[in-house]
Design brief:
The chain is α+β, with helices and mostly antiparallel strands and 240 residues long. The protein has two domains: 5-106, Glutaredoxin (3-Layer(aba) Sandwich); 113-227, Glutathione S-transferase Yfyf (Class Pi), Chain A, domain 2 (Up-down Bundle), CATH 1.20.1050. Helix content is 46%, strand content 10%. It has helices spanning 36-48, 67-72, 92-102, 113-127, 136-145, 150-174, 189-203, 212-222, 225-228, and strands spanning 5-9, 26-31, 51-56, 80-83, 89-90. A five-stranded mixed β-sheet has the order 1-3-2-4-5, covered by helices on one side. Strand 2 (26-31), helix 1 and strand 3 (51-56) form a beta-alpha-beta unit. The chain is globular and about 45 Å long. The chain starts with a strand and ends in a 12-residue tail after the last helix.
Length: 240
């Protein structure tokens, strides 16, 4: 697609326990540097030792609404993951689940039934209840139809980031299932989604006070290469 800029990502974080030949899987990832949802997929790919060739879909230029991209994702959402011979995969949490089933090691979901449900619940708090309220299409509607100026939009962001993370902090701090990470002492999808929301808050310079458990977990995530290499500021298209 001529309107998209290609960026090649070839970082591997392969584990000797991986059960799938990584050379069999080559993906196309339609992405934008600062989106929370794209960050999640980048982290998961890194953790799983998989690679993707990125195509930059410039949200600021409206490329997500181009006829070319709408053939990939009719909703115009970012990201989309494409594997040759298969229909595009959209929705970041569905992509995380796909990658978990495709490449089970290292696992991003706990082995036990209740643990998996808890992680998916934490994921839902972040990816379904918090992040969708501050996306560009929400901003576009509120500024075009609800009279929002920059100050009102910032107040909106602060309200919903704060509401979501305060609730998550309460859950994490009061639950003995929380460990070094959101669930126990290994990275799960919950940590990926949490870090993705905090990264976007940083871009928008939004601060939520009194979330020490979240701060501790995100700092531990940031120390891992899979997260550090997925950071928005390190992606093609990010401001210099």
């Amino acid at each position: 697609m001529e309107c998209f800029t290609e960026a090649h990502r070839t970082a591997h974080f392969a584990s000797p326990n991986h059960t799938t030949d990584m050379s069999e899987h080559r993906f196309e990832l339609y992405a934008f540097w600062r989106t929370s949802a794209t960050y999640r997929v980048r982290v998961a790919l890194n953790l799983k030792g998989l690679t993707a060739r990125e195509h930059l879909v410039n949200l600021d230029a409206g490329e997500q609404r181009s006829a070319e991209y709408l053939q990939i994702n009719p909703l115009g959402g970012i990201p989309a993951l494409v594997q040759s011979g298969h229909a595009p995969l959209t929705q970041s949490t569905a992509i995380l689940e796909f990658l978990e089933e495709l490449q089970p090691a290292p696992p991003l979901l706990p082995a036990d039934l209740h643990g998996r449900a808890r992680v998916r619940s934490l994921v839902g708090m972040l990816a379904s209840d918090t992040h969708p309220l501050i996306t560009p299409r929400v901003k576009k509607y509120l500024t075009a139809h609800a009279g929002f100026d920059d100050a009102a939009w910032r107040a909106w962001q602060t309200q919903w980031f704060g509401t979501g993370l305060a609730a998550l902090e309460q859950r994490l701090a009061s639950d003995e299932a929380t460990g070094l990470f959101c669930h126990g002492d290994a990275v799960t999808m919950a940590d990926i989604c949490l870090a993705s929301v905090v990264k976007v808050m940083g871009i928008f310079k939004i601060n939520v006070p009194d979330i020490p458990t979240i701060g501790r977990i995100v700092a531990r995530c940031d120390a891992l290469d899979a997260f550090a290499l997925a950071a928005p500021q390190r992606q093609p298209g990010a401001p210099g």
